[in-house]
Amino acid sequence: MRRKVFSRQFLLSDIAILCYLALVKLILHLLTNGQYGYFRDELYYIACSDHLAFGYVDQPPLSIFILAINRWLWGDSLFALRLLPAVAGALVVFLTGLMVRQLGGGRFAQVLGALAVIVSPAMLGQSRFFSMNAFDILFWALAAYIVILIVKNNNPKLWPLFGLVAGLGLLNKYSMFFFGFGLVMGLMLTSHRKHLVNKWFWLAGLIALVIFLPHIIWEIKYDFPSIEFMRNASLYKNIPISFSGFLFGQFLQIGFAHAPIWMLGLYYYFFHKEGKQYRLLGWMYVIIFTVLVVGNAKVYYLSPIYPMLLASGALVIERFIRHYHWNWLKPVIASILIICGCISAPYAIPVLPIETFIKYTDFIGIKPEAEERHELKALPQYYADMFGWEEMVATVAGVYHSLSPKEQSKCTIFTSNYGEAGSIDFFGKRYHLPKAISGHNNYYLWGPGDKIGEVVISLRISLESLKRLFEVVEQADMVECRYCMPYENNYPVYICRNPKISLQEVWPYLKHYD
């Protein structure tokens, strides 16, 4: 009898309700993550997972190690590939509710904070495919939760746990540096600066450094390619954005209905009498926001910080409703979030057939805007980059199999970027294609192998460049796709013969990190 009562109490407890909400987010992704196709970066990450190392030109290694284990356990299907990002997103929902709980929020505040994360376009979108970003949000949320525990309980002995999370976060994505920098500045600007001289805080830094050290050694070995990558991306790839554009992007990415919640959350950390002890979190937001604007970062780079603001904002709203006894506001606020979330959901996860999505964007009137210097058409880049890859590989396969067996044995497939190379490596298995080479990002470090370039099938390399490298260049076919990025459509596939210089000799000049 006691066991039944306990079970019933637990199933209706605050923790259980947070688990249910996390499960809702997980199910949303499991039902939609198999739609459209493999994302450009996923194909590249799969190639990286076949070349395990302590670093890559454009990222630290942790997410790639996770992917390698994921592939070993469950294979390469879209569902399997996107399972762990969906789980990470669900855990962020749960952690947001726990943050509310630690800040003193009741059941409604916990549900509101968790619900806000579920229906946020950015939080949905970052978990829709495999990338380091889904895990990045999780590491930020976990780190913020630990900071709240340290401040609330004045327990500096938790700093080593923070160091573990921060170290793994750094090993996943460099953006954890922003969290660390914002945290140190927030400590300096508040009474919590005493932690800066605490041995447990310095032990946390040492733990994070030791975890991150193998990647630092890798960077030194390869002459810091990631610094060159980030510089080139900022200067030549990302579209410059103004302060107002970056700020508006926060409303658009997180959700317009969410704006009052996270802004009240910022108010709580700075001005509320109970929130002042957590003021360092408010300073973290302001400082990291400023750093990202000055650094010409993409809008979504700030997304991981919002769970801690949505948590405190939900608390403020609950206190307001309780003070005025306006309980009728609870279903109103929840309904507004859900309705707005349903409206924005097709922009975040592939819930609609692609033609229906295009019609939907026409109806809503919100068209995709580029964050990189590439032309867009009907689809935003994050959807367009899910189309056209297998069709491209089939076209290349037709060209490859038109060669004689002797030429096939000498043939190299040379692409302009890692998306094309990754798709050749992934889909090419079923067409019996050789692995691709490219000068783009980590494909440059993997090099051309032992092929000198006697016969090369080239994709999206200019005819002028090819004629400087080969005696004979002839067009063999055209790549065409309907929904892909415009620059990946309607371009020729060339067969190149009689190299004027070997691939090994020309390789140092083919590097491009961006």
Question: Structurally, how many domains make up the residues?
Answer: 2
Low-confidence stretches: none
Tell me the total number of β-strands.
Answer: 5
Give the strand line-up of the largest sheet. 2-1-3-5-4
Q: Strand portion, in percent?
A: 5-15%
> Which bin fits the share of residues in helices?
55-70%
The largest pleated sheet is described as: 5 strands, mixed
| End-to-end distance | 64 Å
Oligomer classification: single chain
The whole-angstrom Rg is 25 Å
Shape: globular
Give me the secondary-structure topology.
Blueprint: H1 2-11, H2 14-32, H3 40-49, H4 62-74, H5 78-81, H6 83-103, H7 107-119, H8 121-125, H9 132-153, H10 159-172, H11 176-188, H12 199-221, H13 225-237, H14 243-254, H15 259-271, H16 279-294, H17 306-324, H18 329-348, H19 354-364, H20 381-384, H21 389-400, H22 405-410, E1 411-415, H23 418-427, E2 436-438, H24 442-446, E3 455-459, H25 463-469, E4 470-479, E5 491-499, H26 503-506
Parallel strand pairs: 1-2, 1-3
Antiparallel strand pairs: 3-5, 4-5
Helix pairs in contact: 2-6, 2-7, 3-4, 3-23, 6-7, 6-9, 6-17, 7-17, 7-18, 9-10, 10-12, 11-16, 15-16, 15-17, 21-23
What would you say this structure looks like, in words?
- This protein has helices spanning 2-11, 14-32, 40-49, 62-74, 78-81, 83-103, 107-119, 121-125, 132-153, 159-172, 176-188, 199-221, 225-237, 243-254, 259-271, 279-294, 306-324, 329-348, 354-364, 381-384, 389-400, 405-410, 418-427, 442-446, 463-469, 503-506; strands at 411-415, 436-438, 455-459, 470-479, 491-499.
- The mean pLDDT is 93.
- With 514 residues, the protein is α/β, with parallel strands linked by helices.
- Strand 1 (411-415), helix 23 (418-427) and strand 2 form a beta-alpha-beta unit.
- It is built from 26 helices and 5 strands.
- The termini are far apart.
- Helix 6 (83-103) packs across helix 17 (306-324) and helix 15 (259-271) crosses helix 17 (306-324).
- The chain folds into 2 domains: 14-346, no CATH class; 389-509, no CATH class.
